[in-house]
Amino acid sequence: MADRGTRPPPEVLASWPKPNYINPENQTAVLIGIEVTLCVITAIVMGLRLYSRGILTKSIGSDDWLMTGALFCAIGLTIANCLAPQWGWGVHLYDFKPEWLVPARKLAIATEFLFVPCVGLTKLSILVFYHRVFSSKSFRLFVYAGVAYVVLYSISSIVVVFLQAIPLRAYWDKSIHGKFIDGQVAFMVFGVLNCLSDLYVFFLPIREVWGIQLPKKQRVGLVLVFALGSVVCIAGIVRIYYIWIVFSPTNWDFTYQGAPLYIATAIEGDLGILCASLPALKPLIHRYAPGLLSSGHGRSRPTGASPSYRLSSYDADRRRDARRITGIGGQGLSSYKLTNSVTSPTMLNNDSEENILPLQGQTAGWESGSGSNDGSANGIGKKVEIEVTVENVPYLGQDLEKGDGGGPINTRRTT
Questions:
Q1: Cα(375)–Cα(367) distance, rounded to whole angstroms?
Q2: Inter-residue contact 242 to 236 (CB < 8 Å)
Q3: Whole-number pLDDT of residue 293
């Protein structure tokens, strides 16, 4: 289809006032004020997240690096959006200078491109975080499906951005004859797909969290933490509305209404990073403002709350190495399975957002920090099983303690 361009039909031109190129009505202050403020807040929160995860809890992971990449894209998006008013975005089309067309359309391409990896990396970071926290195989299948969806959506969106005009230069150079896609349809479709991925990612863990054996008040709190991203979904819906308005073929004031679209785009990108990073600040609050999370003093834990542990936080002097071998088989050659469990991990009192969930699944062989062994320990654990083949053992029904054995032992370690 042909490009709409910036010159309306004669009947629209007849209704326009005289152009004002000196001090036209614009939305520059609103656009820059919202975008810069939100970007600064997002950068500060992300910096605190990296400090909390990297310094306080020593648990920085790939989800943090993906979110850092999203932050850089969000900063680039904010810079491009703040330059947009300089080239006519946010002013009425009848006040739009002809020489603004080329830079204005190049900035539009830059904004469309930067938005895709900004939201894509944010959602990939959240999904990687889910993979760290939840060990359920069935749940992880949904995580993998979400990753595939986000990756395919992001790639296809970038392809559409650069193929909306063929050749792309025709998008801003009116001297080149080119072919153009229907921008309203294309960007509406991708806007809806983006909103669906927001809903999928931010509401995916709620059922898993709700099934955890915790007091109802704590479960509601966890659900609210994971559902915090619903505000991002609202921002995405607002963005879809402005896409429909700006790309409408009958809208001849799209430059003025482009400013709200730029604002909604930045809000969606920044809010995604903010909502995903706020839970990671819990260790920071515990350290410097413990009163915000507890009505008591110090690091006390509310009655009924489950203790939690950090992965790879086991203290060598607090560790218990419990090994037990049980045997099956016939005379002369028997097979044994040795279960090796590391118990009594260091309690971290729910300092990290990875530690808000009790240990799921097999808990036999674990003891809590208080020394109890009731099979319901909390935390993130790893159980290692070792299959042992023993030859010429005279006492097949006897449990073997570490270091014992009547013959050569060959071991095969499985995880």
A1: 8
A2: no
A3: 61
